[in-house]
Each structure stands twice: as C-alpha cells, then as structure tokens.
C-alpha cells in the first residue's frame, strides 16, 4: 500500500509524493509522481527518472520544471529516491557518494548492504509493479521509458541496456558512462559488489553496450562542457563504445553548462519530447 | 562593489548570485540575477521579483522556472533576499513571519529594527541603483517592472502603488493584499512600525489603491483557490478596492492550486509575458 505524502496542483495536473514499504529495500521508500491533465481521462505512458548522488525524491520534482513538458505530452513522470534510508547500517551516512543518497542502481551482494541496497531491482521491477497496480486507471502499463542525471543517468542507461524492449526509449543528462573506470563508480561498485568482482561489468554502460542485443536504442545524452565532474562521467568513452557497437547515440555537448539543475531544466523539453516520440506512437 | 557568489549557464543565459554590502540594511545582502542571452548584445529591461516569507534569494531562482520565459522575452530578472540577516538583533531569528526572512518590504521605525530593516528603500532605491551601475552594459535603466509572491506580492504592489511611473508593470502570485487586516500583516507592521501607528496605511495595497494617482496600472494577480493562506491574503479585498477606485485588475482564481512554487511555476509564463508587453514596447 502506498501512502500519499503530498499533493500539489501543477500545470493542470498533480505533482504528488507517495511512500510505501519496499520489499526489495526492506524500508519505507518515497517517490514523486506527476500526473498530467490527460491522466484524468485516459491511461498515460510512464517515464521513470533516476536522480543523482545526494538527491532525494524532492530535487527533481522541485527544480527540473519537468511538469510543464510532461503536461504538454501527456506523460506520467515517476522519480524515486536514490537509496534506502535509515536502515541502521554502520557507515550508511558517512559519505555523499556511498550509502544513503548513493544507491547507484545496483543490487548489492556484499553482506552489509545486500539486504537493503537493491536499487536495481527496485527501480526495474518493484516500483513499476507498484505504479501499475496502485495507479491502474491512469497508467498504460506496457509503455515506459527511463532517463536520469549523473549517477541516475548511469542507472537509466543500465536499466535500458539490461532489459531490451522493456523501455521504449532512454536518455540521460551528464551520465556516469563507464563506472568501472572512474572514482565514483569504482568506490560504489567495490563497496556494494566486492572488490575486483566480475559483476562490476554488469553495471557498466560502456561494457553493456558491447553485448546489447535487442530493439534499436536511440540514446539521447546532453553533457555540459563546463561540467565539474567530467573525469567521473567520461562521455568520450560512451561515444567510443556506441561507435564500436553501431549503436545510435545523440550526444550533445552543451557549451558552458555545468552539472546542476540549471543545466537539466534547460534541456528538459528536448528529453521529454524524445520520450514522447516513442511513447506516444 | 558586488561579489559574484555563483554563476550557472541556464537557457542560453546566465543565472548568477551576487553579494554586496547594503547601505540601507547595514549588512551583506544577496540577490539572484538572470541575464538572458539577449543581454550579451543589447541592454535589457529588468523585472524585480520579491519573494515570500522564509525565502532567501535561492527559492525563486531554483524552483520557479523563470529563466525559460525570461530568455524568450529578453528580460533580466533580479530577485533579492527577503530581509537583512545576521544583524545580531535580539529575537531576529525567533519567528518565521517576523525578522529574518520576513522583512515585509517596509522601512522600520521601531528602535530595535530601524537600522537594518529597510527593505522598502532597499528594493525600490538601493538595489536598482546597484543593478544599473554594476551591470551598466546589460541593463536598460529606465525600464523596470516588479512582481512577487505572498509577502513579496504585497511588496510588489506597494512598490508600484507608491512610485507611480517607476515600474512599467506589476503582477503578483497570491499577494497579501490588505496587511492591516490580517494576522501576518498586523504582526509585521506593528513590530516594525509600532503598534497602532498611522504609518501602517502606507504599506497596505488596498488602502494605497484608493489614493493612487499616476499612469494606468494594469495589475495581474493569480490566486489559487486551495491556497492554505487565503485568510492572510484576502484577495476579495483587493477586488473591492480596485473596483471602488476604477483600477484595472485581472485577478484569476486558479482552481485547485495552493501557495507553493508548483503554483507559481505553472503561471510564470503568463506573468513574464505580462511584463514583456509593457517593457518591450
């Protein structure tokens, strides 16, 4: 059962936040959900947005301006929190880039984390099931897409690449593209999956692209040229991986933009239009 | 001298925050300023936005989505903090609706507050002077407008009504219209100006409208019908005052909207278009 935490009228629709007991994460989890005006009279596709390090379900819904575009195109937008919280795991709140606010969209296998830190299964399976069941009259269950920012851009790409056909489209703002090769990724993958484990490769977009077989993916990525975290994001690795694999990538270098929500909101319309193109067929 | 605190590329322009030593407030004051892309090649009009209770200069610039509309219409947007801060006045941080974050856009006369709490003079005189001087090559100094939310909607109306001709247009989201008649207003006016002082009337829009003489003011106000603070805002008093005085008021009751930034962002485009109509003549 989901519990409504807040509800605000927005662009003719409703921006709501719900909380539910997550079976995957074994703790209460919150998510934002925007219902466009169209959802009052028909079932609408759902776009999942995965947020970056340190974010809760609030950052995206209050700062991105997504509601405007979503209302225009008739899309429901679901934005979960970025990790389990309050699980009383030693050290869970010690770092901004590991533990709380930094679930990294993996299913942990390390003893300390494996009970709660199952964000991959949470966002790809449990959450869509909850959404499709609880909001049955508003949601078109077989039409979903995914996008995200930074750690969540990594999450979005991994979700799409590991589940061919599940998502109609994918896009990302400044994603971590090659986590086995950057400090944030190495810390998170080692911490959740064990040091030097082969399973790291299962959560690395640049490596997953090599073996992807499925419907054509038309990936849209925006990357600011003044992003302070380019050494973590490695957009040139994504370009190379897609080129080698013959995968369609529209990576747009946005001159002068940084890693913030000012960057995200500027290009939000383009991302929502990209998803609408595939979801509103 | 102003000091740049932050700078983010946004919608082809720049969202910046500056800090300066305010002569009126006798303390450092911050303000947000958005430069649209047009400001790189020509002087642009300036719209001042006054925020509501508890806000800093951050709330509006991160949540309202104003940059998108401002970039479209070529308007600079300036959004100051809502009060002096850190002045070591006894009790300045005790209430959400008085002192820090609650300057109420008046010039205080009570002993304890009168040295610092001069937000009326700050936003109508000092801040425009700073903007016009520091950003001389981007700003068209004689074209300015004002709008705001809640306490800041009150501030915007008062600024326009007390300075005929200074602002080319005025608008407000859910303004406090009649502060001498509501709890927030009575507390603030009594606290800053003294109990039962005649000067309260000088900061009450409904009373100022009666004696306004100047260029025609075409006031746009949006008011959510589910606003939790209707008893503080008293929109029906504004309708009556404007009707009695023959002043043009377009008050739009927005069905189901509350007092939040979800409400403000939904109608931001209309307000910016309203100001652009008068500023881009």
Automatic annotation (TrEMBL), chains A, B:
A GO molecular-function annotation: carboxylic ester hydrolase activity
GO annotations of cellular component type: cytosol
One record GO biological process: formaldehyde catabolic process
Active site per the UniProt annotation: 150 (charge relay system), 227 (charge relay system), 259 (charge relay system)
UniProt subcellular location: Cytoplasm
EC numbers: 3.1.2.12
Alphabetized InterPro entries for the sequence: AB_hydrolase_fold, Esterase-like, S-formylglutathione_hydrol
Any single Pfam family the record assigns to this protein: Esterase
UniProt keyword ATP-binding, yes or no: no
Catalyzed reaction equations: S-formylglutathione + H2O = formate + glutathione + H(+)
Presence of the UniProt keyword Signal in the record: no
Lineage top rank: taxon: Eukaryota
SUPFAM superfamilies noted in UniProt: alpha/beta-Hydrolases
Annotated keywords: Cytoplasm, Hydrolase, Serine esterase
PANTHER family given in the database record: S-FORMYLGLUTATHIONE HYDROLASE (PTHR10061:SF0)
Family to which the UniProt record says this protein belongs: Belongs to the esterase D family.
Function: Serine hydrolase involved in the detoxification of formaldehyde.
Protein name listed in UniProt: S-formylglutathione hydrolase
Protein species of origin: Phallusia mammillata
Gene that encodes it: Esd
């Amino acid at each position: 059962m989901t519990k409504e935490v807040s509800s605000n009228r927005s662009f003719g629709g409703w921006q709501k936040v719900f909380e539910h007991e997550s079976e995957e994460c074994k703790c209460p989890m919150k998510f934002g959900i925007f219902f466009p005006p169209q959802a009052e009279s028909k079932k609408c596709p759902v776009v999942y947005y995965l947020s970056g390090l340190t974010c809760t379900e609030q950052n995206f819904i209050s700062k991105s301006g997504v509601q405007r575009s979503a209302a225009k195109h008739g899309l429901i937008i679901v934005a979960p929190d970025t990790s389990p919280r309050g699980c009383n795991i030693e050290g869970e709140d010690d770092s901004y880039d590991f533990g709380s606010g930094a679930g990294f969209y993996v299913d942990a296998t390390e003893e300390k984390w494996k009970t709660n830190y199952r964000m991959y299964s949470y966002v790809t399976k449990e959450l869509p099931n909850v959404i499709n069941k609880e909001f049955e009259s508003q949601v078109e269950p077989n039409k979903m897409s995914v996008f995200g920012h930074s750690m969540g851009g990594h999450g979005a790409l991994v979700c799409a690449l590991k589940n061919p056909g599940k998502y109609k489209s994918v896009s990302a703002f400044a994603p971590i593209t090659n986590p086995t090769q950057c400090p944030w990724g190495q810390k998170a993958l080692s911490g959740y999956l064990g040091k030097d484990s082969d399973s790291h490769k299962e959560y690395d977009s640049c490596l997953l692209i090599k073996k992807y077989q499925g419907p054509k993916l038309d990936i849209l990525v925006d990357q600011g040229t003044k992003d302070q975290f380019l050494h973590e994001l490695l957009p040139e690795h994504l370009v190379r991986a897609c080129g080698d694999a013959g995968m369609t990538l529209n990576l747009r270098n946005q001159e002068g933009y940084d890693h913030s929500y000012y960057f995200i909101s500027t290009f939000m319309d383009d991302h929502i239009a990209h998803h609408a193109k595939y979801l509103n067929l």
